[in-house]
Design a protein that fits this description.
Length: 162
């Protein structure tokens, strides 16, 4: 599904000469993580009485998932990913999990553009993202349904000049 959406976007917005779409997708992923955190003020906004918005957080999680999958499609083939080989721990709290995840996004960028094993960095990032969803209490069914809804919205947006 993600590959089809990426192709649809490419048709509507062809890549420009010299444009680094991968770097832009990585930045977009970081922005979506920030938007997700913003829907969860109880996680880090100690100065506020605002409550978490679970539905909007699920939508933002799926927005992040769209970019994460899109990045993965540029780095490796889905059947080459093996998350079972890792025993990656979850953080003790959601704030730390977000911070670890954001560091992993930076690690992926550095591995792609500077010095590392991007496939390994991507797998760590993907697993850490999955752990965040679990820590937020999202079921796989909820994530799948929300992803499919947002995927449809994204296709419609491309059809209507987004």
């Amino acid at each position: 599904m993600q590959r089809q959406l990426d192709e649809h976007i490419e048709q509507q917005h062809p890549q420009q000469e010299g444009e680094d779409r991968l770097a832009k997708k990585i930045l977009a992923l970081m922005v979506e993580l920030g938007e997700l955190a913003n829907e969860l003020p109880e996680v880090f906004k100690f100065w506020s009485h605002k409550k978490n918005n679970r539905e909007k957080a699920l939508e933002e999680f799926c927005d992040g998932l769209h970019f994460l999958l899109s990045v993965g499609l540029e780095i490796t083939e889905p059947d080459m990913i093996d998350l079972k080989r890792f025993n990656l721990e979850k953080a003790d709290n959601i704030t730390d999990q977000f911070l670890w995840l954001m560091a992993d996004v930076t690690d992926l960028y550095n591995s792609l553009y500077h010095d590392g094993n991007s496939k390994l960095a991507y797998e760590f990032l993907l697993l850490r993202f999955i752990h965040l969803g679990e820590m937020l209490g999202f079921s796989w069914k909820e994530i799948e349904e929300a992803y499919m809804r947002k995927n449809e919205v994204n296709h419609k947006r491309q059809d209507h000049g987004y």
